[in-house]
Structures are given as C-alpha cells and as structure tokens.
UniProtKB/TrEMBL annotation:
It is an enzyme of class 2 (transferase). The lineage of its organism: Bacteria, Thermotogati, Deinococcota, Deinococci, Deinococcales. GO terms for cellular component: cytosol. Residues 94-162 form the GHMP kinase N-terminal domain. This is Galactokinase.
C-alpha cells in the first residue's frame, strides 16, 4: 500500500478515521423525519491531509490507486466530490493534499458517509474548526445533497459520527435526539455482502424519496413521521400507498424494537425486509435469496437487507458466538464464495 508520504513526498499534518455503519432497523425513514437504529462497524475510512503545495487540490484514493488534481473551487469527478464538497462546505481556504483509504465495503454500509466524516474530522483538526460531531454529520449530509447528488437522510452521517460498535444508536432524525441502547441480550450482529453492486445516485433512491414526499403532500402532513395509523393512508394512489405504508410501519417497528427481546427483534427485522421488498421495492432477487437463507438458519433470529438497497449488504441477528458458523453455512448455500463478511 502506498502511504501519504509515497504520494506527496512529505508526512501528513493530520490523519483521521470514521466508521461505516449497519442499520438494524429503520430503513428509508430518515428523510421523512423517522426513527432509526444503526450501529457502527469496525471498518473505517481513513483520511490524511495537509495544506497543499501546488495551486490545486491533489486527491489520492489508495483503493482506486488514482490521484486527481482539482482546481480550488471546482468539484471534480469520480471520488472527488466527496472531498471537494467537504472542503467547500467547511469554508477552508487554499489547496489541500488528501490521501484516502477505506476498508468499509461498498453497498449498504455507508462507505460514503465514512469517507465524508473522516474528511471532515481531518479538516476540523487541521484548521481548528469550531464544529461538534453533530455539525460534522449535518455537513456530510449536505455534501451528499449538493455535491454528490444523493438526497439522503441524516442517519448515515449521524451514525458514522456518533455510533459505536457495541450499542445501537436510537436516533430521532427529526429532532436529532438520540440515545445508545444495548444489543438484544445473547445476540451477535452479522453482516454479509450480497455481491450485487449498487450506486445510489444511479438507482431509484431519489425516485423513492420523491414518491414519499408526494404522499406526504397528498396527506397534508409535513412528513410521514406524522402518520402513525396505516389506515390513514387509504385513498392514496396504489403505488404511493405502498411506499407510504413502508415508512409508517417501519417507524412503528423501530419503536417496538426498543424493548424487544432477541426473538421479537428478529421478527421485526424479517417484517422490515418484507416491507422493503414488497412495498418499497428496493431489494434485489439475489439479496432476497441471501436473506431467506439467513432467516431459515436455526441460529438466526432475523435478517434483512440493510442500507438503501438495490443490492449491497444484508444484516442478521444471530445467537451470540454463532455468527461465523452461520456465515460459513449460508454463504456456502448462496454459492458466492469470497463474499465479504463484516464481523
């Protein structure tokens, strides 16, 4: 692996990291002011940075083995917008040299949010910026909106900025009120890569967001967070009814999960996947296959797709200590040797 010194010839001034996340429940609710239950994963994005020594930003991705040169004030292409967006929104001046590397798998584990938060943490330290961890999360979300073109909610950035690997982060995405909760007793979280790649900006993500915004408008509410009774959705056009029903019932599942034991939590995860597959239509046949294999395993309480969907990762709640054995058995059945396991 080439380090910062190998690319730029000097040691970096600052190095910062931020984790990816897995969402246990609360999918596609955050941009409607809903409730979510993510946790951080051990994998991180790492960003090293110094003030630049040339007129333009120099941006190196070790994962891609690619170095981009982007004039100050421009966005750039490829992976550049994630970094130039952070530089622009923090208001730092002058060119910067950035080196980035990540072991967060792409596809449902917030690799982009991890990159944004690692960059923002590095810039905060380099420039002594008066920004707290919530400020950084909100800036990361703004990078996605204004520079990447994905109209995401705030869950990914809040989880990358605030969550840890041993607790669930219960987050009210409207008020940003939050608290950490223990995992259900006697359980272990298992994340598997389906092997189906996806890219949010090229998927139906923004389309789904527009659909639930239209449903909210027709119902006369600011966000579907304000609807707690699914019966209130009657009368919506059929497609919008299904989209809204997912959001309303998913919010209810998160709240129910706060006091659920392992078995009931798993049941809620299974119901969440069915809703994402049938009502929100953001799953994929191969993802459904992998989830079904997990749900059928005797040491799995529940399983679902995680992240925005259209491919990517799945998450399962297993009996404590059984996750590696479950992964071996299920991946053998899935027929995708070499798929990545995130412990």
């Amino acid at each position: 692996m080439k380090r910062y010194e190998d690319i730029f010839g000097v040691a970096p001034t600052v190095t910062a990291r931020a984790p990816g996340r897995v969402n246990l429940l609360g999918e596609h609710t955050d941009y409607q002011g809903g409730f979510v239950l993510p946790a951080a994963i051990p994998q991180h994005a790492t960003v090293s940075v110094s003030r630049g020594r040339t007129p333009a930003h120099r941006l190196h991705s070790e994962n891609l083995d690619q170095t981009l040169t982007v004039p100050v004030g421009e966005v750039g292409a490829g992976f550049a917008p994630y970094l130039t967006g952070c530089l622009a929104l923090t208001g730092v001046d002058g060119p910067h040299d950035l080196w980035v590397w990540s072991d967060v798998p792409s596809g449902g584990l917030s690799s982009s949010a991890a990159l944004e938060l690692a960059t923002l943490r590095a810039l905060r330290e380099l420039h002594g910026l008066p920004l707290n961890d919530v400020d950084l999360a909100l800036l990361g979300q703004k990078v996605e909106h204004e520079y990447v073109g994905v109209m995401c909610g705030v869950m990914d950035q809040m989880a990358s900025s605030l969550a840890d690997t041993t607790h669930m982060l219960f987050l009210d995405t409207r008020s940003l009120e939050r608290r950490t909760l223990p995992m259900p007793a006697g359980t272990q979280v298992l994340v598997l890569d389906s092997g189906v790649p996806r890219r949010l900006a090229e998927s139906g993500y923004n389309e789904r967001r527009a659909q639930v915004e239209e449903a909210s408008r027709l119902l006369g509410v600011t966000q579907l967070r304000d609807v707690t009774d699914p019966a209130r959705l009657e009368g919506l056009p059929e497609l919008l009814h299904r989209r809204a029903r997912h959001v309303v019932t998913e919010n209810a599942r998160v709240l129910e999960a706060l006091t659920a034991d392992a078995a009931h939590f798993g049941t809620l995860m299974n119901a969440s996947h069915a809703s994402l597959r049938d009502d929100y239509e953001v799953s994929h046949p191969r993802v459904d296959d992998l989830v079904a294999l997990l749900q059928a395993h005797p040491d799995v309480y529940g399983a679902r797709m995680t992240g925005a969907g259209f491919g990517g990762a799945v998450v399962a709640l297993t009996r404590d200590g059984q996750a590696p054995l479950v992964a071996d058995a299920v991946l053998g059945q899935y027929g995708q040797e070499g798929r990545r396991v995130v412990p």
